[in-house]
Automatic annotation (TrEMBL):
Residues 3-94 form the DUF1330 domain. Coiled coil: none annotated. It comes from Pseudooceanicola albus. InterPro entries: Dimeric_a/b-barrel, DUF1330. This is DUF1330 domain-containing protein.
Length: 97
């Protein structure tokens, strides 16, 4: 079954508020069976608008990834990221493990 991948590109503008987001987001993602594959590590930007924080998380399916995003737990976390970061987030379906 294809998995669902969150791909996020983030520039943090308020470290304190974004820290509150991170504290709540991790447990929300885990609750929906998501796990981080990469988070804030080294990268090489090749095209487009660069963000200095990049995140890759995997879920059992695209639907599970979307359910997590729309969940009350994640939306509560996200309320701290809004205004504290510039973010691009998408969900991509894929077969890789």
């Amino acid at each position: 079954m294809p998995k669902g991948y969150w791909i996020a590109h983030v520039t943090v503008t308020d470290e304190e508020a974004y820290g509150r987001y991170a504290k709540l987001a991790g447990p929300a993602i885990a609750k929906y069976e998501g796990k981080f594959l990469a988070r804030g590590g080294r990268y090489v930007w090749l095209e487009g608008n660069e963000h200095v924080r990049n995140v890759l998380a995997v879920f059992p399916s695209l639907e599970q990834a979307e359910t997590c995003y729309r969940s009350p737990e994640y939306q509560e976390a996200l309320s701290h990221a809004r205004g504290a970061s510039e973010r691009d987030l998408m969900i991509l379906e894929g077969d890789a493990d």
